[in-house]
Amino acid sequence: MNTLLTQNDTQRRDRMLTLGAAVIGLGLLFAFDSMFDRFTMQIFKLCAINVILALSLNLINGFTGLFSLGHAGFMAVGAYTCAILSMSPEQKEANFVLQPIMPVLLNVQMPFLPSLLIGGLLAGFIGWVLGVVTLRLRDDYLAIATLGFSEIIRVVLTNAQTITNGSLGLKGLPRFTTMWWAWGSAIVITLFLVLLIKSTYGRAFKSIRDNEIAAEAMGIDVLNMKVLSFTISSALAGIAGGLLAHYLTTIDPKQFIFLKTFDILLIVVLGGIGSITGSIVSAIVVTVLMEALRFLDGPLNLGFMVTNGIPGLRMVFFSALLMIVVIFRQQGLMGTAEFSWNSLARIGLLPKRGQKSGKGVE
Amino acid sequence: MDFQTFLQQFVNALSLGSLYALIAIGYTMVYGILRLINFAHGDVFMVGGYLAFFGISSFLIPWWLAFALAIVLTTAFGVGLERVAYRPLRDSPRISIMISAIGASFLIENLAIVLFDARPKAFPVAEFFAKNYVIGGVYVAGISLLIPIVTAVLLAVLLWIVNRTKTGMAMRAVSTDIDAARLMAIDVNRIVSITFAIGSALAAIGGIMWALKYPRLEPLMGIMPGLKCFIAAVVGGIGSIAGAVLGGLLLGMVELMTVAFLPELTGYKDAFAFILLIVVLLVKPTGLLGKNQGEKV
Amino acid sequence: MSSLLQTIDVNKKFGGLSAVTSLNMDVGAGDIIGLIGPNGAGKTTSFNLITGVYTPTSGKVIFNGQDITGMKPHAITHLGVARTFQNIRLFKEMSVLENVLVAQHMRMGANIFEATLRLPSYLKKEKHVHERAYALLEEVDLVEHAHAKATSLSYGKQRRLEIARALATEPKLLFLDEPAAGMNPQESVELMDFILKIRDQFNLTIVLIEHHMQLVMGVCKRMYVLDYGVTIAHGTPEEIQKDPKVIEAYLGVE
Ligand SMILES: Nc1ncnc2c1ncn2[C@@H]1O[C@H](COP(=O)(O)OP(=O)(O)O)[C@@H](O)[C@H]1O
Ligand SMILES: [Mg+2]
């Protein structure tokens, strides 16, 4: 009885803390929105988009244990779908100078939300088809097959002149991705993923990651579960792609080269493969660092000498960081651990209350 | 299309396919032994091209000496790469070592951008390689003629090493069962190093021949050929040297012949390899010459 | 006697190696059957053939009157066949409790929408599987470790967790692959009592692999003895004990 009470207490405390944190978070967003200059805001929005990308890649790579490298392709599908659906006929005519756009597509114009969702659904659908086809393959073939698929998407985008405007790309997209859209989507998607992973489906995903043969023997339809996880992950990447398109306002096929997937992988690995908290923190830190370290590419004053600008030094830093983490701290920032108010209490930042009880209904 | 054009395309495809085969061998050998997709293999290929370039253009040494030095240094580079990036993770989960390979590739490319400059460089091609020959009405550049010959010779040497020497026997033992090999007192680290040495040497030769054929160096030039050659290795049946050669030749043929016969598909050329991959894996998941290696339960 | 499981002339070849030759097992409902034989005799392979991990090269497996040859393992589990593994295969990064919960996913029948939206229908199922998981952990005496990582358990406890996990799938037929491996004699004897207990409590039919004949003699109704993939004897423990071929196989190896 006693343990149950403390547990209820802890639950109440956690609920209050979560509510408080949410209010403070929203307040901060609001303050930032009116306080910072446009450049800072852009970075801040990019953080949110990268949070979605990292979480969706982590779902498949970290929680389901499949090594997929096709994210850039799914982002491209979402980005182009969302852009084409939401642009006005005039904008389309102005963009398609080499060959006119397909007549069916010329006059469709939808608000942002449905465009974004349709982009996500289409990416999810393509992910489903690809999953059904490739997830039967041995695990490392999946890496190369998904990577290849993402390149096929890019080649198709480059060549489908009357749909995508080919290598010229699409310019002048409406700047729909405001702070509220970016962070709103990030929060909704994070919530969705937390609920998913803590459900029986999340347990099934993790069991496949931990031991595929045992999972199958425990009655988990492994292939189906993999396809499910892959489809969700692809759809979320598509949504992130749509947000990115209307954040950059210009897209072209080159942006979605498979190296883009590696950038997201970097975030996931640094944060901890299999940790939602890790991905979120890492997405924000890496995005900010990417901007903050831009000075590395410019002229450097080392005190005793001034170097000329060395473009690319920044990326050397990040790739070296990735190597160091993989070799010396494979679990990244968080491993598979997650943030909880209890963990704060354990390290002494909160008053200690309810002990973790062995028994009892959870 | 007349027979003449076909022959011309066939010769071109044979040349490109041999080059793919040479690089694919490196992938297949490393995969056979460590079950690792060495994502950095394409970058080793790039390093080979650049080292030869610097030998000729910056140190002004004769091309043959520059080539020899580039091959030696690239070999050392490949062996060092394994030491630093892969060996510490030998017993880690597969996903970690795969990420390490991606990280290594990423790092080498970015270092190359910083050290070699991102702007493309023109590779100095000696007269001997550039000269065109006319054989039976077909135009062939010296280098295009040379590539299949070099590949064939190297392949013969390699097959001799793998099938006839003690080292080759140890390599086969390690690739069948690394733990059993260890129990039989085979020095696994040495075998892995030798494998990387051979693979990197072949990549360096491939990189130099690539630069002679397409004389333009860029830090990211290894990515696409690297991916395609890995695909060639998978299509042929990963782990099998003959499979890598078959896959390389097949890919060369598919790429050039499709473009020759269906010019409207030229824009999709870079996608052929991936489509070929997915089709072959669906029909025969172990590749054309691959053996099935199921997990013991 | 109605048989729950029958294997009819099941063969399995790995390349040139015949791992299992003409396996003809017949297991009646409620039986405890022993599968014994020296290392490498093909015992685990037989389990893998019946549970769908491997497909027989030839032959048929009939469970509960239904031909299950070539079916996927998860589908066979769904029909009511569960197993443990010789080389323990727990879900390493998951807690002891979660290991047992996962095994109930199949029977929960929760769709992804009710699960992510935490609809009342789902919460009810979730409560039920938690209660069952705790009950099963109680059964194998692991409740106090419910929140520990599965791999933090001692070897013997990991084996018990594997059994709890298998029971969670609600099987009719349970395969235990060397459940006593790594246990001391005292623990082994307790395990045999435990096996008898769960058979009665959960209405199970049990097939168990054991290396040491003496240990299983007491609990098994009948036994099959394999050597180099061939069934060299089957019958009651008394018959087996006297069989010259069995004595030879065992003396030859151990
Ligand atoms: N997946 C496999 N591939 C090749 N050989 C196998 C495989 N699984 C088992 N074997 C072989 O089959 C034989 C029987 O093994 P197993 O059934 O594990 O024996 P037991 O469980 O009786 O000790 C052994 O020789 C083993 O090496
Ligand atoms: Mg066994």
Q: Main sheet of chain A?
A: 2 strands, antiparallel
Described by strand count, sense and barrel closure, the largest sheet of chain B is: 2 strands, antiparallel
First-residue to last-residue Cα separation of chain B? 55 Å
Report the bound ligands by name, code or SMILES: adenosine-5'-diphosphate, magnesium ion
Oligomer: heterotrimer
Radius of gyration of chain A: 22 Å
Q: In what range is the share of β-strand residues of chain B?
A: under 5%
Mean pLDDT across every amino acid position of chain B = 89
Number of helices of chain A: 16
Largest interface in this structure? A-B, 43 and 42 residues
Order of helices and strands of chain A: HHHHHHHHHHHHHHEEHH
- Strand order of the biggest β-sheet of chain A: 1-2
Assign the CATH class of chain B: Mainly Alpha
Spatial strand order of the main sheet of chain B: 1-4
GO cellular component, one term (chain C): plasma membrane
InterPro entries (chain C): AAA+_ATPase, ABC_AA/LPS_Transport, ABC_transporter-like_ATP-bd, BCA_ABC_TP_C, P-loop_NTPase
Keywords (chain C): ATP-binding, Cell membrane, Membrane, Nucleotide-binding, Transport
Protein name (chain C): Amino acid/amide ABC transporter ATP-binding protein 1, HAAT family
Model description:
The complex is a heterotrimer of chains A (362), B (297) and C (254). With 362 residues, chain A is mostly helical. Chain A has a domain at 35-256. Chain A has helices at residues 2-35, 38-63, 71-86, 89-95, 103-106, 112-134, 139-159, 161-164, 179-197, 200-210, 212-217, 222-248, 259-271, 276-292, 313-328, 341-346, and strands at 300-301, 306-307. Chain A has a two-stranded antiparallel sheet with strand order 1-2. The two termini of chain A are 14 Å apart. Chain B is mainly alpha-helical. Chain B has one domain (3-283): ABC transporter involved in vitamin B12 uptake, BtuC (Orthogonal Bundle), CATH 1.10.3470. Chain B is built from twelve helices and four strands. In chain B, the strands form two sheets. A two-stranded antiparallel ribbon of chain B has the order 1-4. A two-stranded antiparallel sheet of chain B has the order 2-3. In chain B, helix 1 packs antiparallel against helix 11 and helix 2 (41-57) packs across helix 9. The longest helix of chain B is centred in the first third of the chain and has 32 residues, at 3-34. Chain B is globular. By secondary structure, chain C is of the alpha/beta class. Chain C is 41% helix and 24% strand. Chain C contains eleven helices and eleven strands. Chain C has helices at residues 43-50, 73-79, 96-102, 105-108, 112-117, 120-139, 155-168, 185-202, 213-217, 237-242, 244-253, and strands at residues 3-14, 17-23, 26-28, 32-36, 58-63, 66-67, 81-83, 173-177, 205-210, 222-227, 230-235. In chain C, strands 7-8-9-4-10-11 form a six-stranded mixed sheet, sandwiched between helices. In chain C, strands 1, 2, 3, 5 and 6 form a five-stranded antiparallel sheet that branches. In chain C, strand 5 (58-63) and strand 6 (66-67) form a beta hairpin. In chain C, helix 3 packs parallel to helix 7. The A-B interface holds A 61, 65, 67, 133-134, 136-141, 143-145, 147-149, 151-152, 155-156, 158-159, 213, 262, 265-266, 269, 273, 310-313, 315-316, 318-320, 322-323, 326-327, 330 and B 35, 37, 84-85, 88-89, 92, 94-96, 98-100, 102-104, 106-107, 109-111, 113-114, 118, 227, 230-231, 234, 267-268, 270-271, 273-275, 277-278, 281-282, 285, 295, 297. Magnesium ion (MG) is lined by residues 43-44, 86 of chain C. Magnesium ion binds at residues 43-44, 86 of chain C. Chain A: It comes from Formivibrio citricus. Chain A: GO terms for molecular function: branched-chain amino acid transmembrane transporter activity. Chain A: The chain crosses the membrane at residues 16-36, 43-60, 66-85, 112-135, 141-157, 178-197, 227-249, 261-290, 310-328. Chain A: This is Amino acid/amide ABC transporter membrane protein 2, HAAT family. Chain A: Keywords: Cell membrane, Membrane, Transmembrane, Transmembrane helix. Chain B: GO terms for molecular function: L-isoleucine transmembrane transporter activity; L-leucine transmembrane transporter activity; L-phenylalanine transmembrane transporter activity; L-valine transmembrane transporter activity.
